[in-house]
Structures are given as C-alpha cells and as structure tokens.
Amino acid sequence: MWRAILIGMLAVLLTACSALPNPNVVEKAIALQLSQTQAELEAELAEPNMVPPNFSVSHVKISERQPLTISDLKSYRVRGTYDVAIAYPDHRVVQRKNPFEVYVQQQLESKVWRLAQLKRTETGDERWVTSLLQ
C-alpha cells in the first residue's frame, strides 16, 4: 500500500517538475504572434485614421508538443487550436478552433518562456529570433 502511495506521489512530483509549455504560455505566444502580424499589417496599410481591433485569445487546446533545441536551449513546437474574439469599433467577431503552430523556448531559469520565430535575413539565410512572453 505504501509503495503505491509513494509511486503515485513521485509521479505527481515528476509531472509537476517537467517544464512543458502549458496553455497559458502558448496563449501568450499566440497573442504575441497576432500582435506582431497586426503591427505589420498596420505598417503596410499606413492608414492614418485606422483604429486596430482589440483581440483576446482563449480556449487554447494543445494537441502536440514536440521537443527540440533552439540556440542550445530546450524548446518545443506546439500545435493545437484556440479561439479568438476580435472587437471592431462597430461589432465583435469570434473565431473558434483556429489551428496554430508556435515555437516556444524555455530559458535557463525554467520559468521564463520566449516565442521563437524563424526569420529570413537579408542574405537569405534563416535564423531564430525570440521574443519574451510576458
């Protein structure tokens, strides 16, 4: 009996200590990607009176976490779905079960995560660029 309890407690501790990106981390990564895309669109359109819509990400469902290494740090490719609510000045739109794929990188402190994005340089090479998730 004590052995089963001890094994159960050990399993819980190991699960709690494993630093997998949780839905909250992934939600922040998706929101940051959406914000960056929105800023790029605003810059391209260059409309002086344009009011960008507000949005909120929710109901993140993770279907896959694939471990990998980016710049010698533990990272994950995460896939799944999310809902987003977009508030325009005159109406609100909710999109459900949007598919996503994000790359997140865990910092050495283990509590800090960064969004990792593969970007093409001016020379045509690809390199990872990371942004802090707050």
What share of the residues does DSSP label as strand, in percent?
A: over 45%
Number of helices: 2
Mean pLDDT: 87
Task: Determine the fraction of residues in helical runs and give it as a percent range.
Answer: 25-40%
Which radius of gyration do the C-alpha atoms yield?
A: 19 Å
- Oligomeric form of this entry? single chain
Q: What is the general shape?
A: globular
Ends: how far apart? 44 Å
Category from helices, strands and their pairing: alpha+beta
**Total tally of structural domains:** 1
Low-confidence stretches: 8-17
Strand order of the largest sheet: 1-2-3-4-5
Number of strands: 5
Largest sheet report: 5 strands, antiparallel
Reading the helices and strands in chain order gives: HHEEEEE
